[in-house]
Amino acid sequence: MTAYADPFATAPAPEPAATTQPAPASAPNPYKIGFTLKAAPGYEAEWLTPTVYGASAQETAERGRDLLVAMQEAGLIDLATKAAEYTRAQYKGQAKPAAQNSNKPTQQPTGEGPLCKCGNPSAYTEWGTNKFNPSQPNRAYKCAIKVADYRDPSGCDFIKWVR
């Protein structure tokens, strides 16, 4: 085995790393609060996202309170809602159909079907699209226990297709 010289033995010593000083407390507006005001839980609803800054936490909190009160008193929240409604009314395109999860079966209350292998009533279900007739969903009676929770071991794999 050949011995090699240590390449770091003759290298200069590294210089000490420069330390970074924290920003002085007198830096302008080091505190920030952002708000999200939503008109409804969905993404289609209006969102207002005002932000305030301050030199101290107390000042920032007070400015935040003042901003929200001023927005309400000036009618900005109502105005944003009306502007959004107007914008939606101007949309000239076609509305997209609601997205449908084709993997999750839906249960239709059309009465009980035949008893399944485990002795429980079956449930009418529709899911996905039929590969032979794409305009129609797959339709069948399945074990009601498995429809409610496919992991339940007390259910069975009963299926009776509906044409």
Describe, in plain words, how this protein is organized in 3D.
The chain has three helices and eight strands; from the N terminus they run E-E-E-E-H-H-E-E-E-H-E. By secondary structure, the protein is of the alpha+beta class. 23% of the residues lie in helices and 18% in strands. The strands form three sheets. A four-stranded antiparallel β-sheet has the order 5-6-7-8.
What is shown here, in short?
By secondary structure, the chain is an alpha+beta fold. It has helices spanning 57-73, 76-90, 144-148; strands spanning 31-34, 37-38, 47-48, 51-54, 106-107, 122-127, 138-143, 159-161.
Oligomerization status of the protein chains: single chain
Q: Give the strand content.
A: 15-25%
Provide the helix percentage.
10-25%
The overall pLDDT, averaged over residues, is 76
Largest sheet: 4 strands, antiparallel
Helix-strand topology string:
EEEEHHEEEHE
Net shape: flat
Number of helices: 3
Based on the model shown, name its key terms:
single chain, 163 residues, alpha+beta, 8 strands, flat
Spell out the blueprint of helices and strands.
Layout: E1 31-34, E2 37-38, E3 47-48, E4 51-54, H1 57-73, H2 76-90, E5 106-107, E6 122-127, E7 138-143, H3 144-148, E8 159-161
